[in-house]
Each structure stands twice: as structure tokens, then as C-alpha cells.
Amino acid sequence: MTPVSEIDVTVETARELGLTADEYANIVQALGRTPSYTELGIYSVMWSEHCSYKNSILQLKTLPRTSARMLVAMGEENAGVIDVGDGYGVAFKIESHNHPSAVEPFQGAATGVGGILRDIFTMGARPIAALNSLRFGEPDSERTKYLIKGVVHGIGHYGNCFGVPTVAGEVYFDRCYTDNPLVNAMAVGVVRADRMASATAEGPGNPVFIMGSSTGRDGIHGASLLASREFDDETENMRPTVQVGDPFAEKLLLEASLELIEAGVVVGMQDMGAAGISCSTSEMSAKGGVGMTINLDKVPLREADMSAYEIMLSESQERMLVVVQKGREAEAAAICEKWDVPFVQIGEVTEDPHVTVYRHGSLVARVPAISLVLGGEAPVYVREQREPEYLQLTRKPVDNGPTLHQAECTGILKKLLAAPTIASKRWIYEQYDSQVGTNTVIRADGDAAVLRIKELPGKAVAVTTDCNSRYVYLNPHKGGMIAVAEAARNVVCTGALPVAVTNCLNFGNPYDPEVYWQFAEAVRGMGDACRALDTPVTGGNVSFHNESQQHAVYPTPTIGMLGLIDDVDTVVGSSFPASGLAVVLLGTQRADLGGSEYLHTMKERIYGDAPYFDMDEELRLQQLTLQAIRDGLVTNAHDVSEGGLLVALAEMTFGSGVGIDVSISTEHTAGFLFGESQSRIIVGVDVQHVDELRRRCETSRVDVDVIGTTGGSRFVVRNLVDEDVSDLRNVWEGSLPAILSTSIAQV
Amino acid sequence: MNVGVVTFPGSNCDADARWAAGLDGSTVHKLWHKDTSLPTGLDLVILPGGFSYGDYLRTGAIARFSPIMNEVISFANRGGLVMGICNGFQILCEAGLLPGALIRNSDLSFICKDVYLRVENDSTPFTISTGSSSQQPTVLRIPIAHGEGRYTTSDADLRRLEDTGRVVFRYCDPDGTVSETSNPNGSMKNIAGIVNDSGNVLGMMPHPERAANDLIGSADGLTIFRSLAAFVERTTAATV
Asked: Which of the residues of A are catalytic?
């Protein structure tokens, strides 16, 4: 039987839906006939970059993807899961929602949070933390302020109402993100290893249910058209492709899902994000080697006259596809009724490995599930690469600047502390509930957050997101390595062992060979660092086409890092907690202004190479620091990153207000004081432990410099800065509110 | 002490309240919004924080009509202890168990941070173990997390609350000074928590259950749970 088509399909129809002529020919071949319009719609979303990873998968396969701690293989399920012992796992994943957030910042960011939370609880894990990595243009335009406020409000609205603490994040500002902001959302959950749910359909005859919100016309072609093209004059018209979020519905969906899994009635479960019913039915079927028949007349609709095409492609939020064990439907229905969550059977699992879809009694689609999915017959492309021409311009030596004296040095320090990328993000994070769940041990303002695991007394996890995209722009391979290394370093600074990575790879148009070279090189760098640190990549997502007017964003491979803590009492923060401590710099001081915030703020240019980085040196530093924290030798730790040594020192005084008095033994050039050469950590040390720490540094071949002591309320760097801590803190704290609290008209 | 914690659809601090209430060995019962009776022997009912029914209409406005609220109201009228935290406070106001309303914060943003509370009345069941006195008021560090926590009421009600010592907690500086800068949301008279006429129903915007362990930032909230346990013990002893 040939499916009914609403309109006649030709290669032109395929092009309008974002498919190429070759892809259309492959569809015709896979089906042995011309596809119906609904079938073509299904292929267009499933073979979109967003769902198929067709342009990235060959590179992603070069990443290290295994470890004894991983409970599921990369890409096998909705999120990676790491064994934390005693029968529990931690599920975590990061995902982008860049394009929707650019078009409609509030809903775009909100549904980004909602989507990543569903990825976690669809596996049976209860979310315990949310993080986000945000990038905007310089906050000097009305549009950028509108985007920032909308995104922050959207993240807070969704996470606060749902009841997950938003505990960490990073916010960078750079001109390259003006038209195309990046909104990457990460979530972390805890699951009992023997209660994990799988996104697999099994057992012909088992009923297939749709659970959660009704299906509307929102989000149609969100993945295939909006997320898979660049920004241009047409983009504003794409606002209807952005989904609308309902965190209250998601909260009920969470509780009902976990209770269904707990009751043991679930065969398999997958959330509906990109490509909605098309994606969940085909992926679950393909993974189980089965098929499904689906009757769209059963799907609860917001508008009764929706066509098969619209229903299959809708990206309405807060929905799940659930395969239930035959005979236990009533039990499942009772749980959903308890939570007032709609739960309707729409089909059943079949031995025949096709997804077969009916609407108004007619067959509208009949597609081999395997032909739609990544790892099946979805296309895989080798893309052309070429080293970008801009590197000829940026690759030039950066001098270390003149020797600085007090007035000048103090002025630069204050300018950097006020730079939006460095300034306190309090204005943002106080709008997020960071404590619900009563697990938040450290809410991060820069380094990593720490969450205790109530189920495992004494244990905790540290989580962070990180990527300095300027470094990746200047040197994708080294920049990719640094992104991983710095994420690991942030986790180490709390006393956690870095164990696994999730990544969100934000790049421009993959059909541009220069962009693709950046992508391949950055992935190669990440892979090298992940192998060295033994932190496999457990999953994540790729977001291409982040560009406008032929202008790509900086290549931004955001790293989400998970660290494990066996004894939560050993955790340390970043601020100096008391007077009378030794201030100790671990790692080698080098003058290197390449790609620094100093260049960006003082010279308004980014050039040079990514800053100095050596993987072996980094590993030695991290191992030494982690052991020193675990053994109680240090009171607090913070790594040197954006803004360099003096900014890091200042940040360490803001939390407690305890001052420092230190001397810098190197030359007093900007290169040493504000450069961002990697692999440096500042720690506070009880004076009685200083000799022991020195001994360990000697054994580990890590440079160590006791640069001064804590005490008083002034920030003193001999001959360079002598200011009240509170004055510097006011500069750091006051910057973003001053920029953002000016009332703005909606753009 | 026997504690019941109500779960409304959209409650998200119910598990936290159960955890904190159980730390001192109290028996904790899960109560469901559709329940039409309360377990016997209950000493305290907690209406926890969250976004009941999404707070889409008006905070607490729909939860107030949940079947269990009839039971909570009769329980309170019989003298049972009721504590509404954050969204629970909003529900108590909607249900008419407490006067006034919680409206949008003065800066229109959701705010999550630690605040300081001055204990204004140490004779309520919720504060008898706080060691507060008018000469030396106790200051507690407890977090807030709300978008609509600006307490407001009629002038007449405000006067009655003040005259009868029913303002239990006020936002203050770390040293106990009540000032405009220590008021996070624009509440009238820096009010963070109040009790009803009889003193057995408390509503407070800050989250004592989030300040029940030093590991997560503060243990100051425990003094409220300890006060309740001490009060219940004293009352039980008096009855026996």
C-alpha cells in the first residue's frame, strides 16, 4: 500500500525542506518509490544536521568514548551515565539552544533548559543540578541587553519552577556573538543503576503511549530549518518555529516518569525534543530492531485540524514516548492520573521494522526505522577542510608590554575586574534558584559547583562548564585542549577527581572548509586532552550554522566536566577563609598575553597564539593539587584564567573580604601580571603545611612560589596595587548591574 | 513530633521540607493534595515551597482549593500547628489563614540569596528555642528564593500585626539592624514572617529547610524545627 500524500512531492519540495538533491535520491531509493509529503517531512528532520550529526559524526568518533566508569556508551542513550559506586550513577549532558534563543530569547532559553532536563529524567535520573554556558555580544547595544535579560529570565523561569538548582555557569561577551548568541544548557541527575530506563522499543505487541502535553503547531521544523541554517533577514520570520515551554507540566512529567520507571512498567522511554514524534518513534524502533504502528488520530492535539505532517514534526514541549509492558497499561495509567499527566496509547510495537503512520484512517507514512537514524542509513559526510586565512593575520608575536608601576597597574586591574566577561555575575545568578534540593555545597561563581549526593552520604560531585573561545579561534587544537584542561582544573580546585566530559560544539557553517578545519582541529585537541586526563566524552551535541552575514562565531567547544568527591568534608572553596595563611602560587609563571582579556579590554583586539599550554605540566599540577586538597594541606584553591594572576588573586579575596599582602618576583610586565598562560593554581596554605607542600611540589616537578600572606582588609601587591578589598569588589560587583539595570525598551 | 508535608502539583521543596523536618528524629508523613483526611496524631502540617499549579493564575490561588486545604484549615482552627514556607505562605494568605498577600518583588526579579532575619517574637511555637529577646534579638541566616515575596496588607491589618506581636521575622542586616537595604523584596516593614491571631499558623518567605545543615551553607533554620519540637514536647507533657 502506498501512503497518501497531501501534496505531490518532487526534488523541489525536498529542497524547500532543507534536503539536497542527492539526499532526495537516497530517500527514493530507500523507499523504492516517491515519498509522501509526511514521509519527506520525517526524512527532512531526521536527516537534518541537528538529528543526524551527518557532518560531525566522523570527527566525533575520534574522541575517547570509553571508561570503566561509564554505565552507558556514548550516544547510546539520551545522556551519559557515570558509575559513582554503591549502585548509583550520575547522568549528565549539555545541549545547545542557540538559534531559538536568538529569535525568541525567553522561550528559546527556557525550552533549552526543559529539553536537557528531560534528557536526564527520561533515563530514570532525578535532576540535581542545572548549569549553563552563555555567550553574548558586547553588552553595549539595546539588542544584546534584550537578549541577555530574556535568556536569563527564561533559564530562571524554567529551572526555578521545575525545581532544579541552577548552580554554575559561564558568561562571555564578545562582538562575534552579537547576532548569534550561544545558549548551552547542562543538567545532572542521580539514578539507581538498576533502575535506569532505556530509549529502546522492544517486544512486538507492547503498547506505545504518548505522555504529557498535547501536540500543537509550535516548533515545526525547529531542528531542520531554524537550527540548520545561518541567520539572515528571514530569521525573524522563523519565530513560530520556536517552541513554548511549560515548566509546571515538565515538573509533573518528571514525577510521573520516575514513578512509572520505579513501578517497573516501562519497557523504554524517550523524550520528544527535536523532531518530536518522528524522532522518538524511529530512534526507539531502530535501537530495538523493531517497528511501530502509530495512529495520529489518538494523539491529543491543541488544534483538531492538524495534518499528519504537522503532528509528526511538531516540537511541542513536555512530551514523552513510552513503551509499556503489555498487560500493565492500567497500572501505568493510574500513575499518570495521580499526577494529572495525560497518557494516551497511540500505537504498538511491531516485528515489522517500519514506522507506519495513519491519519484519518489512511496510511500516511511507512518508513524503515533504520533508514532515518544516525548509525543506520542517515547520511554521513566527509567535509573539506582548509586552514583559515585569518590565521595569517592573527599569528603574530605579542609583546609583554612595558614594566608597570602602581597607578597604571591599579588602573588596568580595575578595568579588567569591570570587564563584562570577568565581572561578577551576581546580577544573573541571583535570579536562579541555586539551592532547591538542599544539595548545593558550593554554588560556583567561576570555578566548579559542588553537590552532595543525599543517597550516598559523604559523597559529592563537582560540575562545571568551560571554554575560552578566543583561544580556540587563535589555535583550535590548543584551544580545544585548554577547554578540557581548564574544566578539569576547575573541578580539581574543589577537591574533585575529573572523570568524564559532555560537550557542546558550537561552530559556523560546516560547508565552509575553514569552519570545518576549526571544527576538526578543536575536536582533535579535545580528544588529546581527554585521553591525557582519562576523561572520556560521554555525549553532548553539535550546533553548526552559528553565523550571520558570512561571519561565524568563534569556534566554541563548550566542555561540561564531571568530578567525583569521596569525602565531602575535604571540599574547598576559592576564597581565602582566614588571616595568616600563606598565599602560594603552584605552576610556572610565564609572560604570555596571547588571546588574553587584557588584549581584548586594553587593545580591543584578539591576536597572537592561544596562551602557553603543556599537557604533562597540567597533569602534574592537577594531580598535585587534588592530593593536597584531599590531604587537607590547602584551605582554598582557584586557578589563574581570564585576566591572569592579579585578577585571580583579587577574586580570591572577594568572597570573605580577607585581604592579602604579596610580592611578584618576576618582571612587572603586563605579560606576567595579566597574561593567561595555563596550568597555574593559587592556594591558601596554613603556615605549618608550607614545607610539606614544597616537598611535594619538588617531587612532582611543579614550580611553587610562596608569594605572601593573607590578612587585613587591603589588597596589596607590593609596588603594584594597594587598595581596599571592598573598593575592588565594588568595581567587580558593580559592573554588570550598571550595564544591565538601565531600563530598556524591548527590541 | 509528627509532621505532615503536603505535596501540591508543582511543589518542589516538599522533599527538602521532609528531609529537614526529619533530622531531629520526628516522624514525617507525605500528604497528598487530593487527600480528604489527615493522619491522626499529627502535630505540624508544612505547606512547602514551589510553584503549586505553576503559579500561573496568582501564587497559591489554585492550591487553596485542593481537597486537603479543607483539612488543613480545620486542623489549624483546632489549634494544630501549620507552617507555610514561601509558596506555602502564599497559599495560607489565599486560604484566609493569614492576612495580607505576597506580590511581585519590588525589582520585579526572582531573587535567590541568603538573607538575615531578626527574630521579633520568641514566644511563638516556631521560635521558643531561638534564644531571642528584645534586648538581644537573635539573627538567623536563611536563604530566600522567590519572585513574589513582597508582603503587603491593609494599614489596619498591619497595625494589628505590629500591635499584637505577630510579626515573627523581619529582614535585617547581619548585626540585626532593620534597614531599607536589608529588605530584599520591598515587603512592608521588612516583614519576612507572621503568625495568625492564635499564634499556631506561621507563614514565612525564607526557607528554613534549606538552612538545616552547615554543609549546605547554614544550620540556622534548624532552630525553627527545634522550637516546634520543644513546643510539642512541652504541650504533650502538660496534657499528660
From this structure: 50, 97
Residue from A492, A522, A485 nearest A507 by CA: A522
Specify the DSSP element, H or E, that contains A192: strand A182-192
Quote the minimal CA–CA distance from B111 to chain A in Å.
Answer: 5
CB contact under 8 A, A252 and B10: yes
Q: Which of A149, A153, A161, A494 to mutate to test the interface with B (most CBs of B within 10 A)?
A: A161
Report how far residue A729's alpha carbon sits from residue A689's, in angstroms, rounded to the nearest whole number: 29
Q: Which residue of B has its CA nearest to A451?
A: B216
C-alpha A340/C-alpha B46 separation (Å) is 23
List Cβ neighbours of A20 (8 Å cut-off, separation of 6 or more). Answer: A14
User: Domain limits of chain A?
Assistant: 1-65+197-378, 397-423+573-747
Q: How far is B55 from chain A (nearest CA, A)?
A: 9
Q: Tell me the nearest-neighbour CA distance from A212 into chain B, angstroms.
A: 14
**Architecture of the domain defined by A397-423+573-747:** Alpha-Beta Complex (3.90)
Domain ranges of chain B: 2-239
User: Which of A157, A433, A740 is the mutation pick for testing B, counting most B CBs within 10 A?
Assistant: A433
Q: Are A560 and A94 in contact (CB under 8 A)?
A: yes
Same fold, A1-65+197-378 and A397-423+573-747: yes
Residues of A in contact with B19 (CB under 8 A): 438, 454
B86 catalytically annotated: yes
User: Would you state the cell numbers that stand for residue A513, as one nine-digit string?
Assistant: 572548509
What type of residue sits at position A59? Answer: Q
CA distance B64 to A513: 61
| Contact present, A537 and A504 (Cβ < 8 Å) | no
Which CATH architecture is the domain A1-65+197-378 placed in?
Alpha-Beta Complex (3.90)
Helices (H), A534-640: 597-598, 615-630
Instruction: Inspect the interface and report whether the beta carbons of A441 and B215 lie closer than 8 Å.
Output: yes
Name beta bridge partners: B170: B118, B191
Minimal-distance CA residue of chain A relative to B215: A441
CA–CA gap between residue A311 and residue A38 (Å, rounded): 9
| Whether B54 and A439 lie within 8 Å, measured CB to CB | no
Complex confidence, ipTM? 0.95
Q: Rounded to two decimals, what is the model's pTM?
A: 0.95
Contact A260, A332 (CB under 8 A): yes
In whole angstroms, give the CA distance from residue A427 to residue A419. Answer: 14
List the A80-85 sheet strands across, edge first.
A80-85, A88-96, A182-192, A126-136, A166-173
Tens-digit pLDDT profile for residues A59-87: 999 999 988 898 887 777 888 999 999 99
Looking at domain B2-239, does it have CATH number 3.40.50.880? yes
List, for residues B95-126, the tens digit of each pLDDT value: 999 999 999 999 999 999 999 999 999 999 99
Number of A to B CB contacts under 8 A, please give it.
Answer: 83
Min mean pLDDT across A266-275, A512-521, B154-163, B186-195 is at: A266-275
Element (H, E) at A654: helix A644-654
For testing the chain A interface, which of B7, B30, B112 should be mutated: the one with the most A CBs within 10 Å?
B112
CA distance B112 to chain A (A): 5
Closest CA to A95 of A477, A517, A543, A695: A543
Alpha helices in A323-460, H assignment, sequence order? 329-338, 390-394, 406-418, 426-429
B21 closest CA partner among B4, B40, B41: B4
Secondary structure string (H, E, C) spanning A302-341: CCCCCCHHHHHHCCCCCEEEEEECCCCHHHHHHHHHHCCC
Residue B15, H or E segment: helix B14-21
Is residue A116 a contact partner of residue A541, using CB atoms and an 8 Å limit? no
Q: Is A532 on the interface with B (CB under 8 A)?
A: no
